[in-house]
Structure formats: structure tokens, C-alpha cells
Design a protein that fits this description.
By secondary structure, the protein is mostly helical. It has twelve helices and no strands. Helix 1 crosses helix 3, helix 8 runs antiparallel to helix 9 and helix 10 crosses helix 11. This is Type 4 prepilin-like proteins leader peptide-processing enzyme.
Amino acid sequence: MELLFALFLGLAIGSFLNVLIVRIPKGENIAFPPSHCPKCDNALKWWHNIPLLSWIFLQGKCAYCKSPISRLYPVVELLTGLVFMTLAMKLGVGVEWFVTGLIFSLLLALSIIDFKYYAVPDSLNFTALALALLMPIFTFGGDWMTDGVKDFSLYQDALLESFKNAAIMGSSFFLLGLAVKFLIKKDALGEADIIIAATMGALLGFPLVLIAIYVSALLAIVPALFARGHMVPFVPFLALGTWIVYIFSDTFLKWWNMLYA
């Protein structure tokens, strides 16, 4: 039952992600006007917005003008549902699960926007970073909020560690970007990559974040080789590397300890 709840909640959040992906890059309000067909501009009924099912029942076409509805919509909804369900299997359903799911949902939205526009909105990027920085509070269940301010000291070390890891990774990517720019005379890492790196540091900590960077680089090698001079967005690979390492964190830590014991 928990897994089904996680899946359905993820599908609903994925539906909202589609709104963010479409509207934020265009500078549009995410709440108004209500959902409508971009072709005929007719407002959609509530049953046109049921995550995943509406696209299937409408056969991928607008209910009014029959214009094709992008397959990206159900794909985003399904991926987000699977993200929340997979995290529920790892963490159980709770505060940590929900916040972690939001972080990875934002990383998914950022990845798709980066693929489409080669640019990443700061609003979503900084939101993911803020949630990752505060993850120790959610990880411990936020008991300090109900048990009293004095108990907040129990979480200070974890919060400081989160901020430190984010600062280390963010500054490392910034310096790496400067070095690469000096060598090849053009930008290789942007501001978005730096913020994502900070999010990775806060969420994964060391040494997992180092493994995630390595995995991300491996994933990006093949597309970069076939790009033939075209720009290859790095944010999607950073997000995917983070996901892989987070889900299989125990295995990666075991390997790390075997290598550096």
C-alpha cells in the first residue's frame, strides 16, 4: 500500500513538474492561467489532467482540437512516480522520503529544461539546493521543532556538515570551471553546474559525492564523443549520477571501503 501511495503521489507531482518545465523557461506564471491547450487555448477540464491516465485515454491528443500532446508529459509523470516509489522502497514513506523525492523531482525538471533550452532556471536550482542543505533536519524527523529549541544543538553538526560539503563541491566546480576555461578558452562549466554540485555535496556527503561525479562523467563521455562540437548539457548527467549513487549508496560505500581500507 505504501508503494502505491508513493507512486500515485509521484505521478501527481510529475504532473506539476510538467507545468514548471513548460512555463518557467518562458517566464510565465505557474498558477495562472489554468491548464490549457497550447494550440487551441481551450481550458482543460479536471479529467484532462489526471496524471498518465488522461494522456492514455485521450490517445495523446487534445480533447478539443485533437492536436498531438507531447509524449514528454506522461514520461515525466511516470519517471517522477517511479522516483517516489523507488525512494519509498529505500527509505520508507516519511518526511525524509518526501523531501528527497522533491529534490530528485527538481533535478529531473532541471535536466529536461537543460536538454531543451541549454539553460537552467535559478529558481528551481536553488530550491533543490536549499532542500538538500536542510536535509539533516528532515532526516532526523524534525523532532527539534516539537521538542524544544535546546534540542536543535543535536542537529547542528549534521547541518554544518551539509553546508560544508556543499561549499566544498560548489567551490571545487567553480575553480575547475576557471581552470578549464583558461585551458580551452571557453566556458565548460556554468553557474547551474556549480549549484548542482553543491546540491550533490549536501545530499550525498563524502565520499559518495566524489563517486557520483565520477559516474556522471562516465555517463557523459559517450554523448560528448558523438556531439561533434555541439553543446552537451551536463546537468542531466550530474542528476543521473546522483540518483544512481544515492540509490545504491550502500554498495558504493562497500566498494570504496574495500579500495581505501
